[in-house]
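In the design runs reported in the main text, the only information available to the sequence generator was the tokenized backbone. The following block is the verbatim input for one such run; it is reproduced so that readers can re-run the procedure and compare outputs position by position.
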């Protein structure tokens, strides 16, 4: 099982903390810089990184989001051939509180890019819209196409600057 973590970065000062959240995770971490913040939410950078990945699993980890250290271990037993196409986990969001992993929350404003680990094959040629709400638009299009497991456990933390690591 290959996990690709894709990070569009406009705040390099956060990368050390993001890297620490990945320390126990066997993954390929791909980073694309957008220091001038040319693209809304880093969407274009995420799309460029996505175009470079052709296999395995994909997890978008923004430069202000942390992966819970248990995420990989929790999903590790579930990453099976013939198993689900995607996993949605709950996320502690700095503004919205807990974004719960549930099918009814897969909509604009209800899901963040850093809540989903998906097979690359499920995503196909779909790309993230270059809008502030692109995360919800993207997952709303992708997730109905596959078998999805919803884990209502907080395994992702949005806004690394505002929250303490657990």
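Verbatim output:
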């Amino acid at each position: 099982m290959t996990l690709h973590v894709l990070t569009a970065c406009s705040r390099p000062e956060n990368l050390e903390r993001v890297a620490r959240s990945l320390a126990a995770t066997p993954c390929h971490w791909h980073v694309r810089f957008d220091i001038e913040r040319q693209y809304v939410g880093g969407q274009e950078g995420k799309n460029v990184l996505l175009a470079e990945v052709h296999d395995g699993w994909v997890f978008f980890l923004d430069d202000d989001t942390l992966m819970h250290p248990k995420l990989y271990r929790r999903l590790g037993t579930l990453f099976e051939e013939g198993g689900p196409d995607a996993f949605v986990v709950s996320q502690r969001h700095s503004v919205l509180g807990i974004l719960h992993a549930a099918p009814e929350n897969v909509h604009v404003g209800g899901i963040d890019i850093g809540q989903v680990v998906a097979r690359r094959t499920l995503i196909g040629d779909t790309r993230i819209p270059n809008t502030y709400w692109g995360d919800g638009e993207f997952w709303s299009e992708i997730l109905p196409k596959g078998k999805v497991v919803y884990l209502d456990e907080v395994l992702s933390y949005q806004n690394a600057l505002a929250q303490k690591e657990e």
